Amino acid sequence: MSVLKGGSLLLGLLLLGQSLDAAPSFSVDYKNDCFRKDGQTFRYISGSIHYSRIPRVYWKDRLLKMYMAGLNAIQIYIPWNYHEPSAGLYNFSGDRDLEHFLKLAQDIGLLVILRPGPYICAEWDMGGLPAWLLNKKDIVLRSSDPDYIAAVDKWMGKLLPMMKPYLYQNGGPIISVQVENEYGSYFACDYNYMRHLTRLFRSHLGDEVVLFTTDGAGLNYLKCGSIQGLYATVDFGPHSNITAAFAAQRHAEPHGPLVNSEFYTGWLDHWGSPHAVVSSAEVAKSLSQILAMGANVNLYMFIGGTNFGYWNGANSPYAAQPTSYDYDAPLTEAGDLTEKFFAIREVIKMYRDIPKGPVPPTTPKFAYGAVPMKKLQTVADALEKLSFSGSVKSVYPQTFMELNQAFGYVFYRMTLPFNCSSPTPLSSPMNGVHDRAYVSVDGVFAGILERNEVITVNVTGKAGSQVDILVENMGRINYGRDINDFKGLVSNLTLGGRTITGWTMYSLNIDEVVGQDLLEENPPTQADSPQPGVLSPPTFYKGSFIIPDGIPDLPQDTYVTMPSWRKALNGQIWINGFNLGRYWPTRGPQVTLFVPAHILSTAAPNNVTVLELEGAPCSSPEACRVEFTTTPVLNGATLSDSQQHRRMFIKEDLL
Ligand SMILES: *[C@@H]1O[C@H](CO)[C@@H](O)[C@H](O)[C@H]1NC(C)=O
Ligand SMILES: *[C@@H]1O[C@H](CO)[C@@H](O)[C@H](O)[C@H]1NC(C)=O
Ligand SMILES: *[C@@H]1O[C@H](CO)[C@@H](O)[C@H](O)[C@H]1NC(C)=O
Ligand SMILES: *[C@@H]1O[C@H](CO)[C@@H](O)[C@H](O)[C@H]1NC(C)=O
Ligand SMILES: *[C@@H]1O[C@H](CO)[C@@H](O)[C@H](O)[C@H]1NC(C)=O
Ligand SMILES: *[C@@H]1O[C@H](CO)[C@@H](O)[C@H](O)[C@H]1NC(C)=O
């Protein structure tokens, strides 16, 4: 039988749910303007979920909730940099077990629309491209650049054969596969690149599978985004004119199904700009109109999830996205049911039968309360532990890439070459601090440099004073022409107008040191007094808490916040070595961080480690604490409420 053409036992098992009279098939029906699945007309109502933003233990719960909303498909991005962290080293295990995720989706009864990139945007670091591609300094990403193509070929040669058994016609859940992502919004407009990808995808996946593109719903986007052999779809949100948007798709595809590949249920956030909110009523109304036209739709996002660790991206002009990717989606960052979930379910009910039975409930949250924090070493004090490979010396500063580090923080050190007895400007005239630098002189905090925002701080000190600069990668640009986003000190600094020479640099492996609990205690000093306006050099803090006895079903999910660290509040937080991401309530809008229960332990005290970059008032034990609460706060006050200069990004900018 032709259905077993793949030949493996796995395929046979996957096929049990299918009719055995005919091979499963999925195709574009150009004559009847629809998709055709197993010979029947078919329309999908899908939702986006990013497995890389949800702990594996919660995949099933989130997928089940999506199924119970009435969706018949999900759409997923595959972030290349998540699976190939260094060239040739692949990771598909644990939270990165893509095949396990696909099997869960299929078991639950959801089809899958696969978006393997290579570029995905997604508000994910560098749009999913691995930072190591920047080892070739002048690489033209997303083009026919031979080094870029060689890396893509190798990655797709690994990934696509792995995906092939999961294609619908091979008995799996994948009905269609997107090539690239919104390529029409990228400056390169390199048709040879898109043609190459088309051939590459076909060679690995076969001739049958539906390959498609997605672009903004405008002729200007479709011009460079759509290409012969790939079915062109569009994306647009509830504020768009649906008729005009689908007319744009019809211009590229006169026949075939109408498809909105990204119908926006909410929108993304940036540090310093107000939390984006889109009303349920607007989403429901527009969704209903789309479905009434017989169109296929994917709701982006159905659940946003969390940018744990360092995975958030940024937009240009530089604005980093926060840790939460809640997106104001129908399921919250923590998978909670919302009013929007039920509004969408009511709309879907009008167009297709939705599954009977109860929707899985919102997972309970627990307030573990306040946890006192103790001061540990400063980054400068712990340098030897934090830098496994030791120091690197060079005349001019090197970038993260040159130092072979992708994420987190790099420590730069130099000495004042002359007396700076009066305040002397330490500057980055080329705006080359990527992205934020915490400067101290002889251990005393001197100021902060920030990309596009602050290019000069004044320093004072004698010749020979030690200047320490901790430079933070806040997430690589994921959209537009600036995705070649080098980190660290990417151009020279000057002191009093003279180029600084003689750098010592340390790449830092903070995550491993925190995970192994190697940092030592260091009692507070005079310098830690909470004097208004006085900051301190980047310092670690630690505390621990026990999950209470006698309460059923603990541990449960929670949210962490730093309510009483008044002045500075900006840094990174780990629990039991798991990197929860960046907190920055003073810039907003995100105030609390999601803490999934599976990282908590009932067998031992839970260890909270904080790297506070600007200084916390920890001379008073009352103030020095973090707190676990049951209520998320994602819409706190933002800097832009008072400082108008931070630019808002509108949809047209980011299509
Ligand atoms: C692979 O990824 C998983 C999930 O993030 C992680 O736990 C594991 O340590 C990684 N494996 C390697 C070899 O890095
Ligand atoms: C929507 O677009 C269509 C086609 O371009 C146009 O005829 C119509 O007037 C537009 N509707 C609104 C409300 O702008
Ligand atoms: C810096 O100033 C000190 C006095 O404060 C002086 O002894 C020293 O020679 C000066 N060094 C330079 C390089 O000018
Ligand atoms: C640096 O100091 C000079 C002289 O005191 C002052 O005019 C200038 O505003 C200061 N610059 C900054 C960035 O603080
Ligand atoms: C720093 O300046 C030197 C001398 O002008 C130059 O050769 C070098 O390329 C510059 N380095 C960076 C990172 O811009
Ligand atoms: C927290 O740290 C303590 C002391 O290092 C250790 O004994 C304990 O196992 C850690 N807790 C967890 C959950 O790993």
From TrEMBL:
UniProt keyword Hydrolase present: yes
KW Disulfide bond (keyword) present: yes
SUPFAM superfamilies assigned: (Trans)glycosidases (SSF51445), Galactose-binding domain-like (SSF49785)
GO biological-process terms attached to the record: carbohydrate metabolic process; ganglioside catabolic process; keratan sulfate proteoglycan catabolic process
Beta-galactosidase 1-like first all-beta domain: residues covered: 397-509
One Gene Ontology cellular component annotation held by this UniProt entry: membrane
EC number of this enzyme: 3.2.1.23
Family: Belongs to the glycosyl hydrolase 35 family.
Record function comment: Cleaves beta-linked terminal galactosyl residues from gangliosides, glycoproteins, and glycosaminoglycans.
Quaternary state and interactors: Homodimer. May form higher multimers.
Protein name, as recorded: Beta-galactosidase
Organismal lineage: Eukaryota, Metazoa, Chordata, Craniata, Vertebrata
